[in-house]
Amino acid sequence: MVNGSKILPMSGIKVLDLTWHLAGPYGTRLLADYGADVIKIERPSVGDPSREMEPFFKDERGPEKSLLYQYLNTNKRSITLNLKSQEGKRIFLELSSKVDVVVENFSPDVMERLGLDYGVLSSGNPGLVMTSISNFGSTGPYKNWQASELTTYAMGGAMINTGHPEKPPLYIGGHIPSFHVGTVSAAATAISILGAEQSGQGDHIDLGAFQIWMGAIDRRQSYLMSHQYTGDISTRPWPASALGTGIWQCIDGYFMTAVGVGLFPRMANMIGEADLLNDSNWSTAAARSDPERLDESIALIVPWMLERTKAEARDAAQQHGVYGGPINSFEDLLNDPHFQHREFFQQVEHPKMGPITYPAAPFKLHLDNSKGNEKAASPILGEHTEEVLKDFLGTSASEIKNLRKGGVI
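Now predict its structure.
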């Protein structure tokens, strides 16, 4: 079994994964992390476009060297299948009749044009759960609009609050919007699997990235509610707009604090300036709200931080109840004693890159504790095609040879 010997919550669940790029593959990776047998279907010779996305292992470009692809597709099996060919469609229909879940993130109507929409698939498998991920969902006036992470985050997220107040709004770093959509898709799929097991009737989940970001609890809803009652439009705060709040340089990097006038007495104690609180300019929250206090506080905090390492600042913040933490590099995280204790990073052996350290599943299971369920590396393009066709459909070696010759797989 791909995920090891122990029983995981999704063990026994079979998933056909038609997703590509980022959001869909992250969602199906979560299913695979917790035991599902995820069969990734890729285009022959080409594969998932994320195989060509940076960064690459040792900066060597190639379909098996994309570290982003590796991260998104651990614990999966890969088969190649040409869904535009009649034989490819026939094979997919047969496979779909033997699985629990199909996940796809094509543009709306693509599956229908292929003759592989939910109505067709569920006619041969009434308990099938199908998850469709698109930019705006499969209905409504926006359904055919094209979009990127940037546009869906801007339209449905809190981009107005990201960035410097005197400059244009900024896109949130990394691929967080896509990964958030993938997380929601995994949760929705798992919920629907539970429903299908109880009722015997599957369902078609229609997810739109725009709608998911619009409903995100991360700032968007709270700011909209505030606007409803006050009429105010949210703005981007200054980097040090609150007393004791900011990013400070240390001996070995940077440390961030989030304090404010109410909790500033804790920071005053931390930096050895407790006597300030006896001064009428600092003794009350109202006095500390004077804009002059902000500049004065910076002049006190900066030299204190410059004399300490990130670890020393962290320990002091913990001791005094100051909200703050180090800004970590990747090396910091890999060597973090807490992550090491919880075995968050695991090493997997990849056939093209050798041993690589990967982040483990995002949460631990008490009964399993991740022992005996070490990660399997992401698959080589088409690595499991013969295995899946033989196991699921009983396809013979000669038939597989003809399918390859005809460009079907």
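The chain has a mean pLDDT of 91.
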